[in-house]
Amino acid sequence: MKDSPEKITDLVRSLNLVPYLRQHPEATVMEIARDLNLSPQHVMDALNRLHVSGVGKGPGEMIDLVADWRRVTLIDDQGLDKPLRLTPTEANALLLTLETLETIPGLVDQDAVTSAAAKIRAAVKAPGVTDTIADTDPGPATVISQALADERQLELDYYSTSSNSTRTRQVSPEKLFHRDGYTYLNAWEDGEQKSFRLDRVRRASLLDEPSAAKGSRFDAEDPFGFTDKQVAELLIAPDATWLIDYWDIELGERSRTPDDGGWWTATMPFGSPEWLVRFALSQADRVKVVSPQDVAEEIARRADSARKRYDQPDSIE
């Protein structure tokens, strides 16, 4: 079970008491509480925890102190003579993450992100971090964020897995959303609502044309509109049921016919026939498409064509 944020905060606060006590010998509990903006009882609880803390349980392996309400005396600080702090590498990595979140409106509390980033910049005194951002060549996320704010159209160079190609698209952005660890842009293209994964956007340019987004209702439970898409009927090999962990596949019943090897019936929504063909060919030994019939025939045609090319002997000159 993971520790709660409150427990982690209490741990950090307790450990930071040690360097304070080293710098303020013989401080009273009331003085510590006043200086650190804590309640006296909270200070005593933290001191009691520290008294049984260390790298081990033997002599010389634990923090040693004497504490009562009148005086706190630190005997052995176990080397914790400085407050806990981020290393420059840790601080810059965290700052980079926060700056990325600043470019994605709607995902998180922007005020909290901006405030945290400003505090880290001030703490590490690292203006060079912000200087590395090229204002003349902003990343796609920054451009997309600007387009949403200004309600303008975008030109994207976007890699599509369905066609295995990158092409230029002109879209009207509507909103950003997060799903399964990825950030997507919900936008309109040629009158159709589509989703674009941000890590597949190779380039983004802001256009002068106003956005033509239609402001349709967004369903967070079904952001890709799978309920409105076509559904394919599949057969899944008995040793390939793990595919359901990676694709939106719903298993049906397992065949009881001895001759077919016990394949599973299944269904899967899909956006375009071309994508389904490519998916089936890439999983040829694991997946068979039963319907739509025209897609199944196209898969068979391409597979047969590939086999013929493979079987054809190379010409010898």
From TrEMBL:
Domain (WCX) ranges: 232-305
Domain PafC HTH residues, every copy: 10-122
Domain of life: Bacteria
Chain ranges of the WYL domain: 143-204
Pfam families: HTH_PafC (PF19187), WCX (PF25583), WYL (PF13280)
Protein's name in the database: Predicted transcriptional regulator
